[in-house]
Amino acid sequence: MSKLRILIRLASLPVLLLTACASPSGRVPAVDDIMRAWSPELGRRPDPVALAHGRTIYLTSCARCHSPQPISRYDAGTWEKKLPQMIDDANLDLADEDALRAYLEAALKAPDTRGADAGS
How far is 56 from 75, CA to CA, in rounded Å? Predict the structure, then answer.
């Protein structure tokens, strides 16, 4: 490896470390936060296992094409328009699609998590 390549890699190390500190998981609500914010007025209480699976899909499968965006970036109608193509691009099976949709719906409904872009 040339000295120039080594210098470039060393120079990029601080950027990589700073990026790692801004974890994508901090941009989407944690399942515990959603469950704490849930109230009977919001409807049937979501299944935390399904939400956890949906959150994992959001943070991993979606991240193959782009960094995970805060859930609150889009309203439910916009998510509904965007999801079919993204689900197809990610090759999600029906179970993963259902879990992802459940997570997004719950995150948008839960009042204390709707606008939050922090927390894990």
Answer: 20
